[in-house]
Design brief:
The structure holds 2 protein chains of 2 kinds. The two termini of chain A are 77 Å apart. By secondary structure, chain A is an alpha+beta fold. Chain A has helices at 8-11, 16-35, 39-54, 92-100, 118-123, 159-205, 252-269, 276-290, 365-368, 379-388, 395-406, 425-429, 445-458, 463-483, 533-541; strands spanning 56-65, 70-77, 86-88, 104-106, 130-137, 140-150, 216-221, 229-235, 241-248, 297-304, 310-316, 322-325, 330-332, 351-354, 358-363, 417-422, 431-439, 492-499, 503-510, 544-549, 556-563. Classes of the chains: A alpha+beta, B alpha/beta.
Chain lengths: 565, 110
């Protein structure tokens, strides 16, 4: 306690008995203040006891409010109830006590210029003598303890009373201060619980992990209680998958609320659109109407078509996603529009890419701006290194490994960290058996067949199944050689083979004019003619095949799958 | 030309061997059609075929159709396992007359 010690010599001036009595009262009050859970009640009892002990007619406690410009009567005892009464600090004797931060004793109010007498006029009470002591804690005044009219003697207060009231005021001030601290702790605890609840709600806005073969995986680690980042993905009734990953400007509760608003809007509206740019335009308009000034959202948002081969997306001011090509190369796909929430007229162009060409990594700046062991920003180059070290892993495992490296022990996470990986199943789970480019010439086929056969055997296929895969790949190559560019294709074919525990995957790419997939149909077998058998063979031999136009408007991509488990 | 042919007991016998793929099926097709143009009944010997794809099968289909049109006999003999599995895939094992060898064919011819 930092209260001033009572001047015991003064207290004990009259007699030892008085001093002991005063000390006993003080000890008791201080004890009550210290152990009080209900300050209201304790202060009420205290001023009743002050009044009785000081033999005063009335007593009250005023507290400063309204930026210390007003004194409000918080507790009072006596013939007139002045609880709630407001006094200007600039006026009266109570105000002077605050202004001068010193006890004010007016033995006889009739001789005081400071006495206003307002209450006496309205209540009929007659004030003769006043004694006020500031309620101060660490030099800061928080209110005033006031005693009115002494009953005994000449009815006026004396210096001895002044010393005693100063001591009582110190104890009361400390009690009020402690109670306020306790209140603020309770408030702090309440806020903490609210943040916890907000975080829980946010967590529920994130998608639940899907089965490992789902083409999208994501992670989110907030730096503080709540996150300004979010990501989402879910399958729509028409079979498409909607996904997004976003970063809301700012941090804390306001960012979290904007995050919840944006995420909910997207969740509701995603099914109504096929063009991700139009979806963002709609959400942008809604955000521009309601978002606080200066707050915005950067986002990548898009759709994966039902077969999981093609994705289309729009990038509103977000970090360029990284595409990892089948050949191991990386490309950044920059934003085509400013963030959401800036201009309601913004248009959001759409990008398309084939997942057969590789996987797509989305992330927030919390990833690239995290610090390496050398205290340098990770940057995109560092992220690429981290990605490369784990491409053989399953998607969510890949992301967890990257985030574990960024959040390694001993580092302080400065920003929310959010990542998403979108990949077709073949790249997600499989490991590459081999890759070869060859010219689209029939003479190359024999060598290609030998390699496909070896790879199939290496992947654990029986000789019979390997022969089937060889025939299917041969037929696919033959189709390109015979039909691409009306039979004039003189370019190359890229063949890749992948496998996982269950299946073997062959991806064939050419750079000929895109074909209409609907034209690639096996012919009816009862129609006996020399051509058209190749597609039928592929159909019969493989479990699944997907024909895809390459995204840049040039070339075709065929993926063949065969269960080998 | 990478494939040979012989004339034996009234049949022209074209013997395909090795891999009959897009690189080599044009040769097979040319030889088959050439024999048929000479109005020969034709048997294609597939006993030494290691691999055949749809382009090779297409040559056989073309030969079968031409023979039918010209009123000539056509058939396959000594079909290797590799070739048979591909023919089955195209359900052509039910279309082409298939025999173990020339003797079996002649026996069937009566």
């Amino acid at each position: 306690m930092s209260t001033k010690r009572p001047d015991l010599r003064l207290i004990g001036k009259d007699s030892d008995h008085d001093a002991v009595e005063q000390l006993a009262l003080l000890a008791e009050l201080i004890q009550e203040f210290a152990s009080s859970l209900n300050l209201d009640e304790t202060l009420q009892t205290a001023i009743e006891r002050f009044m009785a002990y000081m033999d005063a007619e009335a007593a009250s406690i005023f507290l400063l409010e309204n930026k210390d410009r007003e004194l409000v009567c918080y507790k009072c005892v006596g013939p007139v109830d002045i609880a709630g009464l407001r006094l200007n600090v600039a006026e009266g004797i109570v105000g002077k006590c605050v202004r001068e931060q010193a006890c004010q004793m007016v033995r006889d109010v009739r001789r005081s210029r400071d006495f206003s007498g307002t209450i006496d006029h309205s209540s009929g009470f007659s004030t003769r003598s006043l004694l006020c002591a500031p309620l101060s804690v660490r030099g800061e005044c928080i209110g005033v303890l006031e005693l009115v009219n002494k009953r005994s003697g000449d009815g006026l207060f004396d210096p001895q009373d002044q010393t005693l009231v100063r001591v009582l005021a110190s104890a009361a001030a400390l009690a009020i201060h402690n109670a306020r601290m306790a209140d603020s702790l309770v408030e702090h605890e309440r806020l903490r619980r609210e943040f916890e609840l907000a975080r829980e709600i946010q967590r529920k806005l994130l998608p639940v992990p899907h089965e490992t073969r789902f083409p999208v995986a994501g992670v989110n680690f907030p730096a503080y209680e709540v996150s300004g980042d979010f990501y989402d993905f879910f399958r729509l009734p028409d079979g498409r998958i909607y996904f997004n990953l976003a970063d809301v400007s700012g941090k804390g509760m306001n960012a979290a609320l904007l995050m919840a608003q944006t995420s909910s809007l997207l969740r509701c509206l995603a099914r109504d659109y096929t063009d991700p740019g139009k979806l963002l335009a709609r959400v942008n308009q809604a955000l521009c109407e309601t978002a606080s000034r200066g707050m915005f959202v950067t986002i990548v948002s898009g759709y994966i078509e039902p077969q999981g081969r093609l994705i289309c997306f729009s990038n509103a001011g977000h970090q360029p996603p990284l595409q990892r090509h089948c050949d191991g190369g990386f490309a950044e796909i920059p934003a085509g529009a400013p963030p959401l929430g800036v201009d309601p007229e913004t248009e959001f162009p759409m990008s398309e890419l084939s997942l057969m060409d590789g996987s797509l990594y989305l992330f927030t700046d919390g990833v690239t701006e995290s610090l390496t062991a050398e205290h340098k920003p990770l940057d995109v180059s560092g992220l690429i290194e981290l990605i490369e070290s784990g491409t053989a892993l399953e998607s969510s495992e890949q992301l967890e490994n990257i985030v574990a490296e960024i959040r390694r022990p001993g580092t302080r996470q400065r920003d929310d960290i959010t990542m998403m990986l979108i990949s077709s199943r073949c790249h997600q789970l499989s490991k590459k058996l081999f890759q070869q480019r060859f010219s689209a010439q029939p003479e190359c086929l024999q060598d290609v067949r030998a390699k496909v056969n070896a790879a199939a055997i290496q992947a654990g296929c029986s000789a019979k199944v390997a022969a089937q895969i060889v025939l299917a790949v041969d037929e696919a190559c033959t189709n390109i050689m015979q039909h691409a560019d009306q039979g004039d294709y003189a370019g190359e074919i890229l063949l890749e083979m992948h496998n996982n525990d269950e299946e073997l995957i062959c991806v064939l790419k050419d750079w000929a004019a895109p074909l209409d997939p609907s034209q690639i149909q096996p012919r009816a077998l009862d129609e006996l003619r020399p051509g058209g058998l190749g597609t039928h063979f592929i159909n019969e031999l493989m479990d699944n095949w997907i024909f895809d136009e390459a995204p840049q408007g040039c070339g075709n991509c065929l993926t063949l799958r065969k269960h080998i488990a | 030309m990478s494939f040979g042919h012989r004339v034996e007991r009234g049949y022209a016998v074209v013997a395909l061997r090795g891999d009959v793929d897009l690189a080599r099926s044009p040769d097979a097709r040319a030889l088959i059609l050439q024999c048929l143009e000479q109005k020969s009944d034709l048997l294609v010997d597939l006993s030494e075929v290691d691999y055949i794809d749809s382009s090779g099968v297409a040559s056989l289909v073309e030969g079968y159709q031409m023979a039918k049109k010209e009123g000539l006999k056509f058939g396959l003999i000594g079909v290797s396992e590799a070739a048979l599995s591909v023919l089955k895939l195209a359900r052509l094992d039910q279309v082409f007359p298939i025999h173990a060898d020339l003797d079996a064919r002649l026996l069937d011819d009566g």
